[in-house]
Amino acid sequence: xxxxxxxxxxxxxxxxxxxxxxxxxxxxxxxxxxxxxxxxxxxxxxxxxxxxxxxxxxxxxxxxxxxxxxxxxxxxxxxxxxxxxxxxxxxxxxxxxxxxxxxxxxxxxxxxxxxxxxxxxxxxxxxxxxxxxxxxxxxxxxxxxxxxxxxxxxxxxxxxxxxxxxxxxxxxxxxxxxxxxxxxxxxxxxxxxxxxxxxxxxxxxxxxxxxxxxxxxxxxxxxxxxxxxxxxxxxxxxxxxxxxxxxxxxxxxxxxxxxxxxxxxxxxxxxxxxxxxxxxxxxxxxxxxxxxxxxxxxxxxxxxxxxxxxxxxxxxxxxxxxxxxxxxxxxxxxxxxxxxxxxxxxxxxxxxxxxxxxxxxxxxxxxxxxxxxxxxxxxxxxxxxxxxxxx
Length: 391
Known about the structure:
Number of strands: 4
Largest sheet: 2 strands, antiparallel
Structural class: mainly alpha
Order of helices and strands: HHHHHHHHHHHHHHHHHEEHEE
Strand content: under 5%
Strand order of the largest sheet: 1-2
Distance between the termini: 43 Å
Shape: globular
Radius of gyration: 20 Å
């Protein structure tokens, strides 16, 4: 299914993909780090303390920063320039992602290297930082969005993802970035999870550990199409049980993304629940899965029970404070504009800052009253949507 990036259908799929990622991250992030044996299949968001917003999370915050490289340097931005984007928009060792220490966190290490004038891609090279660090999961968690910018072009999406991920990652870490970006791009034209996985496998080396693990998981799923919990055990048999050495590794987390796609059978809710319940980087993995199935299923495939608690709101983190309290609609507009820039297509008429053309979107508006029941929702209008307040 070929979509012009200028089409409304494209914009709706981008919105659904980014929304799906936000849902998956919100669902799975509170469960990260728990032993696999302690996890039960989660069915709903864990509650937040009264009056607080969820996030910010690196899965979305760093992705929005990486996307700015296209805005600032153009569609042909190099890894060197994306490294400059890190320095331009990241706080000095605070905010956006976890700063766990030089030599402990791939992102922290890469930032310190950039600050010491070790330019990208050397900043993320395994020969400098070591393979274990270079093959952590972060390149996979934050680079799926490239698939939104180049619909139905998995190879190009993978190329963009590798270019961006190379600032901090290498080896299998780059294969994970390529794989998830290809999944998202392919989802514009395909909905079958097995076919999506096959397409994404084609953009990474056949003999890589990543590819061999995914093929083994595909074989297990063929023979055991109902038992996702046994598939988790297969993953741990192939790449090691969840511990400090494997929790952040890209291969076991990539396998969990595929596991959720296969056993979720293309159903959005089922898939993100499995991803959030299967251990490892549960928020990141569910975010990847949510983006893939958001694009594949569209808005109509995402039940309102996931959307309403978010109220279209997104909390991000960068040096640009005005962009840190944003909403999912605004992010979709931004990503669509980058897709049009990459495609070389002329921008349409400027979209109003607050609009309600994405079905069900509220742009984060709230209605507060004293004592009376009140709510906001989107309502139909001749212009395609408006916000309705009910008291």
